[in-house]
Amino acid sequence: KIMGQIKRGALIVVEGLDRSGKSTQCKKLVQSLEKHNVKAKLMCFPDRSTLTGKLIDEYLKNKECKLNDHAIHLLFSANRWENVDNMKALLDDGVTLILDRYSYSGIAYSAAKKNMSLDWCKYPEIGLPKPDLVFLLTLSNEESLKRPGFGTERYENVEAQRKVAKVYSQLCNENDNWVVINAARSIEEVQKELVQKCIEKIDEVKMVPLGVLQ
Ligand code: ADP
Ligand code: 2DT
Ligand code: MG
Questions:
Q1: pTM more than 0.95
Q2: Which domain holds residue 111?
Q3: How many domains are there within the chain?
Q4: What is the pLDDT of residue 149?
Q5: How far apart (Å, rounded) are the C-alpha atoms in residues 130 and 72?
Q6: Domain at 69, CATH number
């Protein structure tokens, strides 16, 4: 505490294709940060526990579910908006949030579809808390195939993943707070790099106001 002002937590996002190791790294990251005496909390998007989350879960699991591409896009966004007050309160309280996917998944997975404009996909995200740091975990197709196989959810196929990867790299080039992480290493090696970069960022932004997505 400085002059009664609590240092805020950092908003840190982990993005990447299926099987790039996001969920594994996010869980470990919260534990690693706590060992460094940093208050940290894991949040996953979509958050399947809320009302919109239940609809999203059904859409992902059931390929017979014929929801319009724009409608499901807005539901994914609403699922983030539902969590905004909670996220802000935690950040204000000095808790660093580790997000397993965020707006960029929303944009990349929708814009990868036919007749979905990248700009249109970005609009519903405007005004959400802006991440201080985004890790993009990257893995070659070859490396990805060595990992336990795709599940049966929507988007879990090579063709969809290839298109999503293209949008991710475009988003990465447009933003300055993205860091590309070589995910084709051991879990421990990747984790070490993430922890180090998080610690630096947490210190860098602790007195800087949280931004909003534009
Ligand atoms: P994501 O959340 O990005 O889909 P996961 O963290 O669920 O990825 O990891 C996908 C699979 O790959 C899991 O079986 C996990 O144990 C394994 N895995 C994760 N990271 C690595 C790694 N660095 N090397 C080898 N296997 C990994
Ligand atoms: P996992 O729960 O395994 O990460 O898969 N998705 C996610 C979207 O299409 N839009 C979004 O806004 C978000 C957050 C990516 C979730 C699947 O949902 C997709 C894979
Ligand atoms: Mg995951």
A1: yes
A2: 11-209
A3: 1
A4: 81
A5: 22
A6: 3.40.50.300
